[in-house]
Amino acid sequence: MSYLVKRGHIEMWQKSGTCIGLLLLLCILAGCTITDSAFARTTGNAGSAFAAAMTTLAYEHEGKITSAYAASSFADFQSELTGTDQTLLAQGAANTQTVRHLLALYTPAMQVIDAPCLSNACDWRTQDALLQRASQAFLEAGNT
Amino acid sequence: MKKQWTSIALGIVTAIGGFLDAGTIATSGEAGAKFGLGLVWIVLVATVAVILLVEMVGRFTAVSKKTYAEAIREDFGFRFYLLPLASEVIAESMLLAAELGGVAIALSLFTGISWHILFPFVALFVWIIIWRGSFDLIENGPALLGLVTLSFLAGIVALGGIPAQLLPTLWHPSFQQGTVADYLYLVAAILGSTISPYLLYFYSSGAREERWTGASLLLNRVTAIVGMGFGSMGSLALLVLAAIVLQPLNISASTLGELGIAMAKPFGIVGSLLFASVLFATCLGAALEVVLAVSYNIAQGFGWEWGENKKPAEAARFNLVMTIFLLIAVAIGLTGIDPLQLALFASTIISLFLPISLSPFLILMNDPQYLGKKTNRRFTNIAMVCILVLAFLVALISLPLEIITGGG
After folding, report:
1. How many Å apart are CA B322 and CA B329, to the nearest integer?
2. A2 contact partners, CB below 8 Å, separation of at least 6
3. Residue A20: which domain range?
4. Band of the pLDDT at A1, cuts 50, 70, 90?
5. Is the domain of A59 the same as that of A80?
6. Distance (Å, rounded) from C-alpha B381 to C-alpha B2?
7. Which of A29, A96, B39, B349 has a CA 20 to 30 Å removed from the CA of B26?
8. Per residue in B282-297, pLDDT tens?
9. How far apart are CA B118 and CA B106, in angstroms?
């Protein structure tokens, strides 16, 4: 009797395991239709980070956040965006022209991220414009 | 009578202040920034679930005079007890690292000093509090500070309320191409961050620390329903703020500092610093609770002496576990993983483990040997099973997708 119960349990676990395995496989196969491509995800995330950096810079100069707050935020943007150029080169082989265009905007925008103008002694508006251009281009690339 | 009402008021206040943590802040902010009001429903579902669970675990401990971990070990045996314990330790160590990172980022937003430098000092600060502080200090101190979360509601009012064009996203979230996996991932993460099992171990042990009895059931029920109900308002308010301010700016709230922009828009510098204060208080409170919850769990399961009100020498192994667990979280945090991403991932892992962590609880709550006439009613059981299955399935689907695509 106990042997039969034990075998019943084993069969139940085997069936459950098979169902979960099939479900996972289905999810992974469906993954290509319900998630972005890696390239679109990278560009979308970078576009969003540039947009956040642009707003942070503007808010700092409008007196809505402190310099310390902005400096801390820019350190996070730096961690998030560093290496995006290498990722784009690796992922964007099928779209060389777009990648070249994005990299042309990425380099000056990253210079802003690395050394943002958080005082009145420098030209923050030019920096803001660079970030805006990069943000728009990356977001557009992420949506196409 | 006056003392009981004071306890009830304090219970409500601490539940409101203690509801948010790095996980709920990360998930609510990202949900609002990416999907407008499209994930409000799951915050409401998670709130109902946490109210039910907190009420149940409080009732169980008050009536049976046993904590959740003690009862699992006693009723299911030591081998089975190791299963929820292992899932708890894996998920909560990541969450603890995220909470410590959240405190470090909050201090970084105040000072401009890198959070990576502040992280070890935060861990040391937490260790000193758990080593020296009393249970009341740990339970009430950060939670009272956490009441500043109510400033999120003031932020929505100052912005003129919810714009009319945002309301349709409540029932028809705007999906951009390929964002379904993100949506599912956030559903699982919101459930995992709100129904985190550490809350139950902490609440259950807290009830024993405060020597609850059958007479404490009113306090328990009011704390669960009113406290947790109002507590979720902080989470909802942050989601709405992110939807109003961040979504139109194309900011997806992928770092914690970005969320402060939502408060800076209506209140300027004061708003951004209020956000940093919320982050500090809620993550500190949660970090203390997570360390204690895991240590309670292990000490109670292994039958060791435990109690935060005891001197470290009187509960040596309990205190040793706290220190070791904190060190594990510090090691995870020192790898430099962004706390927000870690909080999101930990919340989804917790969601995946929820059935393991909570299924013994549902069985215990129906055992008259522990609860006499205070066992669960059928409706409560059905509601809980549905929520747990939903959390598990969503996490099962979304986790592989997110790992494959490298998102999160």
Report:
1. 11
2. none
3. 1-35
4. very low
5. yes
6. 34
7. A29
8. 899 889 989 999 999 9
9. 10
Q: How many domains does chain A have?
A: 2
pLDDT at residue B105 above 50? yes
Letter for the amino acid at A10?
A: I
b vs e for A56-94, b when ≥16 Cβ sit within 10 Å of the residue's Cβ? Answer: bbbbbbeebbbebbbbbbbbbbbbbbeebbebbeebbee
Q: What is the pLDDT of residues A52-105, one digit of tens each?
A: 999 999 999 999 999 999 999 999 999 999 999 999 888 866 678 889 999 999
Q: Supply the pTM of this predicted model.
A: 0.88
Q: CB A45 to CB B110 under 8 A?
A: no
CB nearest B251 (choices: A31, A52, A69): A52
Which domains occur in chain B, in start order?
2-167+177-405 (1.20.1740.10)
Residues of chain B neighbouring A52 (CB-CB closer than 8 A):
249, 251, 254-255, 258, 261
| Residue B268 with chain A: CB contacts under 8 Å | 63-65
Q: Do A64 and A129 reside in the same domain of the chain?
A: yes
Asked whether residue A60 falls in the same domain as residue A130, the answer is yes
**Same domain as A48, residue A18:** no
- Asked if A135's CB is within 8 angstroms of B264's CB, the reply is no
* Residues A111, A62 share a domain: yes
Query: Are A30 and A43 in the same domain?
Result: no
Do both A96 and A127 map to the same domain? yes
A90 CB within 8 Å of a chain B CB: no
Q: Is the Cβ–Cβ distance between B5 and B139 less than 8 Å?
A: no
CA distance B109 to chain A (A): 4
* CB contact A73 to B (< 8 Å): yes
A29 and A55 share one domain: no
- Interface touch B261/A143, C-beta < 8 Å: no
